[in-house]
TrEMBL record:
Known function: Catalyzes the ferrous insertion into protoporphyrin IX.
SUPFAM superfamilies linked to this entry: Chelatase
Protein name stated in the entry: Ferrochelatase
Disordered: region residues: 341-366
Gene: hemH
Biological processes, Gene Ontology terms: heme biosynthetic process
Protein family per UniProt: Belongs to the ferrochelatase family.
Gene3D superfamilies named among the record's database cross-references: 3.40.50.1400
InterPro entries for the chain: Ferrochelatase (IPR001015), Ferrochelatase_AS (IPR019772), Ferrochelatase_C (IPR033644), Ferrochelatase_N (IPR033659)
Organism the protein comes from: Skermanella aerolata
Key words, A-Z: Cytoplasm, Heme biosynthesis, Iron, Lyase, Metal-binding, Porphyrin biosynthesis
Residue sites binding Fe(2+) per the record: H194, E274
Reaction(s) this enzyme catalyzes, per UniProt: Fe-coproporphyrin III + 2 H(+) = coproporphyrin III + Fe(2+); heme b + 2 H(+) = protoporphyrin IX + Fe(2+)
Amino acid sequence: MPNQKTAVVLFNLGGPDSPDAVRPFLFNLFNDPAILRIPGVFRTPLAYLLARRRAKPAGEIYEILGGKSPLLENTQAQARAIEAALGDLGEVKAFIAMRYWHPMSDETAEQVRQFDPDRIVLLPLYPQFSTTTTASSEKMWFQAAKAAGLDKPTVTVCCYPTEPGFIKAAAGLIRSGIEEAGAHGKPRVLFSSHGLPKKVVQAGDPYQWQCERTAEAIVRELNVPDLDWVSCYQSRVGPLEWIGPSTDAEIERAGADGVPLVVVPIAFVSEHSETLVEIEVEYRELAHEKGVPHFVRVPTVGVEDGFVQGLARLVRQAVAGEVKMCSQAGGRICPDGFQGCPQRAGQASRGQPAAAGQTKRPLAAE
Ligand SMILES: C=CC1=C(C)c2cc3[nH]c(cc4nc(cc5[nH]c(cc1n2)c(C)c5CCC(=O)O)C(CCC(=O)O)=C4C)c(C)c3C=C
Ligand SMILES: [Fe+2]
Ligand SMILES: [Fe+2]
């Protein structure tokens, strides 16, 4: 099929591109029914109020980054790397559809229509599936594609929490962090993912379960005897109870235990406010305050060759129909029929997420 034209659409969250964009970006985020799960008549005014309240602290975060999020530039670099890795597929163009800031699905669907591909692969830059991220982006994409009159065979990669290229790339980056921290004592590795409200997971979202599979797969790949590690969750916002343990509680515990820390973001695949400010600035400061002897932030996989080759493999499998469909109706594919996929979310995640403090479990055979 090398003479076919393939559009790969990368899903990501988006981030403000100027100080003035912070509030409307936050409004779009809080007005997403996948994020704020209340009827639209209440959600929209509440989203307005929440965006107004959050604009100041969020603006201060983006100020540290020069007034904007670097997420788009980093996602563009990934798009170019994926195109380069898929030269064997014929004409391939990678597009970006952000959920909460530009370029959003409607703009991207119009660009894809002009490209006139034979097929479209929707590829989330979220290794772990969540109703708040991948499903929300997918829903928005299909609405926008319909409005743009874009009607081409389309398949979505649902998730890839243990994709070998992703896992090897992450492990490679972590090894030097462990070595650096090891000069200051026996290090503890914190696999830190973006958190979710507990009720989202209780409703069947497989995200937490998949984050834990990612952490376990990296630990297995690292193969460090007696490695001290924990899976934990950052970025809590709002009054609801979120899944735990929280990354800040784990930093405090490391201070009390006097162990150096290696903090690894596993649900983000490029740098942005959550890694460059929350981990690098805020958690580093907290670690210092709490007496953690040394703090290492491991970078995200970004355009690491192993990760990009892994994404390219997922696209090849998707176009070749070589992967099991996890949802025939949605046309969504699940690499290797991954157990935590949304189709099986009810069985896979309910009852399975670890309670706080119990996230380090024996490695389960998959
Ligand atoms: C794995 C990825 C993400 C999940 C799951 C997720 C859920 C989620 N997020 C919020 C609220 C906010 N998130 C914000 C920033 C942000 N979130 C993600 C990823 C996930 N979010 C990323 C990559 C970013 C950074 C964007 C950038 O800087 O470019 C923000 C804005 C920043 C801030 O005010 O702290 C909010 C708010 C909720 C409520 C939620 C699940 C319900
Ligand atoms: Fe978020
Ligand atoms: Fe799946």
